[in-house]
Amino acid sequence: MLTTDRTARGAVDRPIYTRAHLDRLIAPRSIAIVGASPRAGSFGLRTLENLAHFRGAVWPVNPKHHKIGEYACYPSLAALPGRPDLVTLVVPREGVEAALREAAAAGAGGVIVYASGYGEMGRDAESAAQQRLAGIARAAHMPMLGPNCMGLVNHELGAGVSFIPEYAKMPRRLGPIAFVSQSGALGYCLAQAAERGLGFRYSFSVGNSSDVDVADLIAAMAEDDGVRAIACLFEGVPSTQRLLEAGALARRAGKPVIVYKLGASEDGAEAARSHTGSLAGSAAAFRALFDRAGFVAVDDYGALVEYVKFFAASGKPLARGVAVVSGSGGAGIVAADMAARHGVPMPQPTEKTVAVLRTVVPEFGAARNPCDPTGQVLSVPESYGKCCRALLDDPQYGVLLCAMSVAAHETGSARASFIAALAREQPKPVSVVWVSEWLQGPGSEAYEADDKVGLFRSLDRCYAAIAAWQRWHEAPPRTEPRLSKNISGSLNFGKKKVLAEREAKAVLTQYGVRCVPERQARNAEEAVTAAAELGYPVVLKADGDIAHKTEAGAVRLDLCDAVALRAACDAMTAAKEGFLVQPMLTGGIELVVGVKRDPQIGPVLLVGLGGVLVEILRDTALALAPVGKAEALRMLKSLKGFKLLQGYRGSAPADLDAVCEAIARISEFAADFAEQVEEIDVNPLLARPDGAIALDALIVLRDP
What residues form DSSP beta bridges with 222? Predict the structure, then answer.
């Protein structure tokens, strides 16, 4: 069952925990295991076994035993020889609450609860029990991990405070990476990268996140000097605000956060009333949240370790170009293809660099980028190093990519030593793509274990990571001034479910959004009078709550005289509440600007090409509301149809400043009324050389 059920029910918002708050939990000097047992396979014995290398005191607690293995066993927490930093509860659900109170009385600095059967059940009684546990822990200032979690690993201290099998036998290479996972089993699978040489510092399983959650651990890792990058597995988010705060802390600390969202596919929910509702689903909302938090999202679980290792190994980009050295012309071609796919430049080397390459690359090789020194490097190994150094010295290149495309062989270990030294002797990142299908071939473990070398098993993922790394470092600050006045205290929607076009545009006008002029008409004669005031040609619409007016036959365009207008009124059977008459505006590009409130994340803004093509083209960008003008422009620039706004084949460009202002103002309304508004749909927003004009709008309200 997804975390949407197990963490959100009854979640309490609070200030984020800092590293200082969590110190005794995640870096304990003494650990008590309540429910420790000598029984083979029991969680109590596994936890004891996983503390074999722990540099601190280990205190089993179980009144049935005087000793378990080499450890003295105590009858209760009150009988311990000191105050425990961390208490791990290995007890059945029925005994957790009493044991938690005992831990609080003993002055524990943190607690881990393994037991299941709480919020993940999706039932009120179990969720209430989970809330009681969190309340006890918070009242005692005793941060709690769990329930329904697999614990934590502090690799530096040798502390495997978990029932995962055989942590104590895992290779103990220390590295600058922290794993934070809501899924216990998948989090353990990530940590098992240590078996192939990867070094890490922490691994956390947060389970139901009733107290300590992903946001808290990201914030704590941002303050940890031994961590350079953080990998996260998400299911759900108890607090959007805390997650954004954690993201800001990580970015200020220069710690990239790489995230993979479980349950990213949409589940076929019924069609929403608005276009926006059908386009901005939950997966899209999480992408917008991660973007606002400054996280790097990956769509492939298998990419998570590769990305976090690369980000941890790499400083800031010194140039955007990537240089490739490969012993295979074919691999070089694939590299160039992947660079084009991900928008990563691969410029050709300068004449000075080419001159150096030609001294070692044979005539039948390629003294260019990608550089192919050919199989001759096997007989003259120093030629490979000379090519690498020449390309790294070229100021156009910010990354050296070594495509290990020659069949894996014993010389690989010697090359791995050279590449490790190369990565340390100069400031540009060096990455290796292991092309061979002998995945553990000679040299591979050296690349895995080296915390200064990025290692990928796919050229595609390598270039995707490089592109993400460049974007992360180039991302501008997101703080922008507010444009509109907050009038949320002066508007009361009553018990309405929908604000139809006329009412919706009236509200948006109060936020400074320019809307098309219009007149109400109860009948054809009033419509003709209104058209005379506005001037022909006009648009006729049915007034009232009608979703997707065009499909419902509730819109008539380009009516040029009274005869055509009367005929349209007579034919429009949907106009049960009368008509709206508007001037017919021509020219410009139709956009859709909408908002969908996600139940976990809040209002998500959508911008895209609009009109009747919005759900056909699906050319959209999303962000959390509110946005400023600069972020609105970034959203527009990400659209495939952005060129249309700049003027295309002789058409005049739209007033982009006015378009961005309209988007920002709509988003500010959405943020101000986040608790009252379910959906907003401004479609189309007409982008013209003389400004941006909302031609239609719909606001769907939440149930009072």
Answer: none
Does 47 score more than 50 pLDDT? yes
Tell how strand 498-499 and strand 519-521 pair up.
unpaired
Alpha carbon distance 679, 547 (integer Å): 12
Two structure tokens written together for 314? 């790499």
- With a CB cutoff of 8 Å and minimum separation 6, the contacts of 413 are 442, 443, 446
Proportion of the chain in helix, strand, coil states, percent, rounded to 5 = 40, 20, 40
According to CATH, where is 3.40.50.261 located in the chain?
A: 315-474
CB 581 within 8 A of CB 562: no
Question: What tens digit of pLDDT does each residue of 332-386 get?
Answer: 899 999 999 999 999 999 999 999 999 988 888 889 999 988 766 555 667 888 9
Counting beta carbons within 10 angstroms of the beta carbon of residue 641, is it exposed (0 to 12), middle (13 to 18) or buried (19 or more)? Answer: middle
* Tokens of residue 581, six digits: 């008459």
- Residue range(s) occupied by CATH 3.30.1490.20 in the chain: 517-584
pTM (global) more than 0.70:
yes
Tell me the torsion sign for CA atoms 604, 610, 613, 618: negative
Q: Is 547 within 8 Å of 501 (Cβ atoms)?
A: no
| Sole residue written with tokens 């139901």 | 208
Q: Per residue in 237-272, pLDDT tens?
A: 778 899 999 999 999 999 999 999 887 665 433 333
Provide the pLDDT for residue 599: 84
Tokens 């970015």 found at: 251
Q: In what order do the strands lie in the sheet with 200-205?
A: 159-161, 151-154, 200-205, 174-181, 229-234, 257-261, 296-298
Structure tokens at 130: 């989970």
- Which position has the higher pLDDT, 103 or 278? 103
CATH T-level topology, domain 3-263: Rossmann fold (3.40.50)
CATH number for the domain whose boundaries are 315-474: 3.40.50.261
Please give the sequence-ordered ranges of beta strands (E in DSSP) within 247-316, or none if there are none.
Answer: 257-261, 296-298
